[in-house]
Design a protein that fits this description.
mainly alpha, 0% strand, single chain, 9 helices
Length: 204
């Protein structure tokens, strides 16, 4: 299976646009949140917290570094640099977007989680989707990794809503941003001049 980065970019723009519209319709965003939020007495709250942590900065950064080191040891230097650069730049750009938008997180009477950063877009959604699609790209576009990316992304996004950590539009925007970012990063990856430059200074 090929990596349809142009298709992903277009869909990323569409998702982000829909997210902005929903965010502007506060009542709709609130109604959607109320569909997903779990009760504090729900027996699955602990499991949902574990799922949510899989998309956290600590976990995604650790997995990125491990993947980068593994690629470096396999003499896939260009890909190792690409992976770390893609995920590092993703974190920086969308953290800046969060600060620029400055949207407050939803507030519930009995919160299931606490977060100090701004809400839009969901960092867990951006980073997890981008990382999983990076893995899909690295491991020869295997269908198994594609399904892992789809299921993992949906579960992590859902967990953020179930815990009340984000608005529905935040998660949707996060996915849109993730699609756009991996598309841009992939175009950079297949740039022949850039590959030649890296291979010149980091020969396999």
């Amino acid at each position: 299976m090929s990596f349809h980065y142009k298709f992903l970019f277009v869909n990323g723009i569409i998702l982000f646009g829909i997210a902005v519209i929903i965010a502007l319709l506060t009542s709709l965003d609130t109604s959607l949140n109320n569909i997903f939020i779990l009760s504090p007495t729900n027996p699955f709250v602990s499991l949902v917290r574990v799922i949510s942590k899989l998309g956290s900065f600590v976990i995604i950064t650790s997995m990125t570094l491990l993947l980068g080191i593994w690629l470096w040891l396999k003499k896939r230097i260009y890909e190792a640099i690409w992976v770390v650069a893609t995920m590092g730049s993703c974190r920086i750009v969308f953290t800046m977007l969060k600060i620029l938008v400055g949207r407050e997180r939803p507030v519930f009477d009995e919160p299931l989680t606490h977060a100090l950063s701004y809400s839009f877009p969901s960092g867990h959604s951006v980073n997890s989707l981008t990382f999983l699609l990076v893995c899909y790209s690295i491991f020869s576009y295997k269908k198994s990794f594609l399904w892992i990316a789809i299921i993992g992304t949906l579960l992590i996004g859902w967990s953020r809503l179930a815990l009340g950590a984000h608005w529905f539009s935040d998660v949707l925007a996060g996915w849109g941003c993730g699609f756009m970012w991996i598309s841009i990063a992939y175009q950079v990856k297949i740039s022949i001049p850039l590959q030649n430059y890296v291979n010149k200074y980091f020969p396999n």
